[in-house]
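Protocol step 4 of 6: structure prediction from sequence.
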Amino acid sequence: MTNNDLLRRLRYALNLNGETITELCALGGHEIGPIDVLKLLKKEEETGFVACDDTVMGAFLDGLIVSRRGALEPKPDAAKTADMALNNNLILRKLRIALELNDEAMLAILEKAGVRLSKPELSALFRAKGHRNYKPCGDQMLRNFIRGLTLGGGNASPTSPPSA
């Protein structure tokens, strides 16, 4: 799934507008203008389409976490998530953190989309890549999770980021 597709789906699932996406990216440490957000939300075949890179998507997800949970003091020895390669597992983890979802809530959201997982199968998606029980999160799994959010399967009520 492309970052643009993910951004469009999350915008719909979380009921966000372009201005809110701009504010969330700023909270995540990346300044982007409202016109640029509109270009990111266009489909590939539309005129003016701009590809959403991992930096913008990471900033959007980090801003979503900050807007809903508040900012954390960075630890000196912790690796910055902006330096980490963005993959479906990390995206799912950031959404889980931002929406404050536990295992039961995640499983309920996936079930709304027609996906049945056990708790061990779900926890495998959040394991470290080298762990023996790690399982990569495929595009279809991420799509189904967002579809479940859209269908009202979680704490997806929009909240505005605090004004600076």
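Step 5 (inspection) to follow. Helices lie at 3-13, 18-27, 34-41, 54-69, 88-98, 103-112, 119-124, 139-150.
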